[in-house]
Amino acid sequence: MTEIPEHLLQRSRDRRAALGLGGGGEATPAAPAAAPAAAPAGQAVAATAAAPAAAPKASAAEPVVKPPEPDPHYVEASKRRGRIPVWAMPVIAGLFFWVPVYIGTLELPPQEGNPVVDGEQIFAATCAGCHPGGNAGAGRQLNNGEVVKTFPDWRDQVEFIELGTNAFDGEVYGDPDREGGAHEGRSFGFMPPQSVAHGGGLTRLEILQVTLYERSGFVGGEPLEDSELLAYLEALAESGEELPEEGDLPDLLGTGE
């Protein structure tokens, strides 16, 4: 509190005495205890200015946060489902390489040393282009027994394959009394010589094998186990004799031919 000056106090006493309220001649009451020293003017102003700031401000209403919607059932199922371990990925990738290999093992390997199987492979690589599946194409029909009708003797068929159609230009080859008519050289397409000795690509043994296939595989699909040609090839394999690439075939069956 600020101390009141003495002249103001005296004026107050005089006024009270004039109004008959007494106190004019009364002794001056003891001055009140000294008020605490007033704070400097700068500090008072600062305190007054800071007072409103100290009052708490009304906070703005916070927006209501909407809880997230639950995931669909298929998403929940996906989250619960176990994941493929990392080590399994190379195994899965390797299946793309191993499956074809595995399928290949399911096929029966060709029978080694089987002259009919060997002849089938030679036919597929050399003859199927003109005789697809034994049917007529650029060359004559061989299946359904047609080749056996043309060549009742397998040696005549071997000779024709070795020499080709040019060797029989205008001449009958095979059976002249063939059912359905005899065949003449170059009367139906052109067949080049197939033997190595005459500019072809097949050895005499390969020609014997493909002849056996044509005479067995195209006659009902069953090899002619009792055929003379099959017996000849078996005797050739047992003897180990080398065939000449041209000329007469050696007699291995005691037939005198």
Briefly summarize what is shown.
The chain has 257 residues and is mainly alpha-helical.
Description:
- The structure is a single chain.
- This protein is an all-alpha fold.
- It has a domain at 115-239: Cytochrome Bc1 Complex, Chain D, domain 2.
- The protein contains 9 helices and 2 strands; from the N terminus they run H-H-H-H-H-H-H-E-E-H-H.
- The protein has helices at residues 6-18, 41-54, 73-80, 88-106, 115-126, 146-150, 154-163, 204-216, 228-239; strands at residues 172-173, 183-184.
- A two-stranded antiparallel ribbon has the order 1-2.
- The chain is rod-shaped and about 185 Å long.
- The model is unreliable at 24-39 and 44-51 (pLDDT under 50).
CATH class of one domain: Mainly Alpha
β-strand percent reads: under 5%
Write the CATH architecture name of one domain: Orthogonal Bundle
Indicate the structural class: mainly alpha
**Uncertain segments:** 24-39, 44-51
Kindly report the spatial arrangement of strands forming the biggest sheet.
1-2
Q: Give the oligomeric state.
A: single chain
- Total beta strand runs: 2
Q: So, the CATH homologous superfamily of one domain? A: Cytochrome c-like domain
Topology-level CATH name of one domain: Cytochrome Bc1 Complex, Chain D, domain 2
Keywords, please?
257 residues; mainly alpha; Cytochrome Bc1 Complex, Chain D, domain 2; two-stranded antiparallel sheet; rod-shaped
Topology:
Layout: H1 6-18, H2 41-54, H3 73-80, H4 88-106, H5 115-126, H6 146-150, H7 154-163, E1 172-173, E2 183-184, H8 204-216, H9 228-239
Helix pairs in contact: 5-8, 7-8
